[in-house]
Amino acid sequence: MNCEQAQENLGPYVDGELAPDACTALEVHLEDCDTCRAELATVRKLASDLAPQVDTLVPENLWTAIEQRLDEAGEATPPTARRPRWRVGRAPYALAAAVVFAVGLSLVGLVWTGSSAHASTVDFSVLLNGLPLDANQAFGKFLALYDAREGSLADARQYAPDLSFDIPDLLPGGFHLQAIYLLRFGKLEGVAAAYDRDGEFLGAVFHRPVAKEHFGQHKDYPCVVGKHDGHKVSVGAWRLVHLTDPTTCHCVLSRLDERTELPDVMAAVAPALPEGTGRHGH
Amino acid sequence: MIEHDLLERCRAGNRDAQRELYDQTSAPIYRLLLKMTASPDDAFDLAQETYLKAFTQLGRFDGRSSLATWLYRVAVNEALQFLRRAKQTRVKLQELAAEDCAASENGRTTARLDVNNALAMLPPNDRAMLLLRYQEGLNYRSIAATIGCAEGTVASRLNRARERLRNLLQNSYEWEGSDSPMHPKDRC
């Protein structure tokens, strides 16, 4: 056995995975080779240093968070009473919730038939909790909470004239507009949009900064997107990023990197955002 | 060893059984995710997703590996997918490494990179290999089942990961027998 062969076998030897005959050959080589003995000591030290030095404590609230999401996942198809009040033309109540939630389907002609009494809050927890299972459906559940109805960009501007936003047909990065929604957060108007890039979902929500945001058990952190300070909530690879100006909080849900793709997307949906703004005042 | 009865009750959606499985496995799963991401918050999120996926996909567990190995596989996949997207550990660790480098009196920079920092600077696949072997103590067969590679390639993959780790540590490691030209020290 030469040094090259010996050193290839040092790892498996230390790991107890080397065949007995190869062990014997290696040990014979090691008896006469200072270099390989030094190399063996190095491999052993690395293995030792990589072993856990202290017990890692699992966060106490981890199971609670999992259990809560299991409960919510069990309600993935909401009961009829909780479905949004949609009509298609004159065919009342015929639209299945699954269709309502499937962002991307053409829901032309939907008529908003009522509203629920919500305080002026924006509760993102149902959206955030549903992300690991199905982002489209989670976004649909969020929309349903706030009595969303579909409309055009002109409808959205007329419906929420105090909000500053843009909803282009095509976002930087190749996200295509699927639908625009008009929402109501208590007494405040809101607007949302759903985008798609080859099956990758991106959602945008615009609301007045005075509406208080809730994120359930998820943590909210400051962040920087391009030249703007904002805040974000992360769920796995998903990011709900908020940049706020005096009239509007621009919330974008995506899997985009904050340093590369997201700044251009935020600039597209929040074209009037002054440099350096974005910290939330909720 | 996770009992067959527990597995069946978990498959049936029994919440007590799910909690029991979580109690038996959460420490190593969370520890692995913590080392993979270098972030308690990300590890917290990914652990949630790991168990959500595990509980909803237990029907797909075919028993060819142990349930613990299968759980590791779910967790590693979640972590790798997350890291591919976020690429944030590299940034974090670059910041960490920068903090760990202090200017010395003669103006040179002295590295004090420790093994944990160096580990997190590795490509995620290398990091997973080393953690599964040396932190979690998995044998090569279980590592292959977790990573989804041929058992015969585990040794070479570990060798490569170990070599990359050594290269990162080379300038700061307190090698025994430091006169050896293979192990230079105090260089940055």
Structure characteristics:
heterodimer, A: 282 residues, three-stranded antiparallel sheet, B: 188 residues, mainly alpha, Butyryl-CoA Dehydrogenase, subunit A, domain 3, 2 strands, globular
**CATH architecture group name of chain B:** Up-down Bundle
How many domains of chain A, as an integer?
A: 2
CATH first level of chain B: Mainly Alpha
Overall body shape of chain B = globular
Helix share bin of chain B = 55-70%
Structural class determined from secondary elements of chain A? alpha+beta
Query: Nearest-angstrom radius of gyration of chain B?
Result: 19 Å
| Largest sheet report of chain B | 2 strands, antiparallel
What report would you give on this structure?
The complex is a heterodimer of chains A (282) and B (188). Chain A is an alpha+beta fold and 282 residues long. Helices cover 32% and strands 27% of the residues of chain A. Chain A has 9 helices and 14 strands. In chain A, the strands form 3 sheets. In chain A, strands 5, 6, 7, 8, 9, 11, 12, 13 and 14 form a 9-stranded antiparallel sheet that branches. A 3-stranded antiparallel sheet of chain A has the order 2-1-3, with no helix packed on it. In chain A, a hairpin with a 2-residue loop joins strand 8 (188-197) and strand 9. Chain B has one domain (4-169): Up-down Bundle (Butyryl-CoA Dehydrogenase, subunit A, domain 3). Chains A and B meet through helix 1, helix 3 and helix 4 of A and helix 2, helix 3, helix 4, helix 7 and helix 9 of B.
Structure summarized in a few sentences:
The complex is a heterodimer of chains A (282) and B (188). Chain A is α+β, with helices and mostly antiparallel strands. Chain A contains 9 helices and 14 strands.
Map the helices and strands.
The complex is a heterodimer of chains A (282) and B (188).
Chain A: H1 3-14, H2 20-32, H3 34-50, H4 62-73, E1 86-88, E2 91-92, H5 97-101, E3 110-112, E4 121-123, H6 125-130, H7 135-145, E5 149-151, H8 153-159, E6 170-171, E7 175-185, E8 188-197, E9 200-207, E10 212-214, E11 220-225, E12 228-235, E13 238-244, E14 249-254, H9 262-269
Parallel strand pairs in A: 4-10
Antiparallel strand pairs in A: 1-2, 1-3, 5-7, 6-7, 7-8, 8-9, 9-14, 11-12, 12-13, 13-14
Helix pairs in contact in A: 1-2, 1-3
Chain B: H1 4-11, H2 15-37, H3 40-57, H4 67-86, H5 88-100, E1 102-103, E2 109-110, H6 115-121, H7 124-135, H8 140-147, H9 154-169
Antiparallel strand pairs in B: 1-2
Helix pairs in contact in B: 1-2, 2-3, 2-4, 3-4, 4-8, 5-6, 7-9
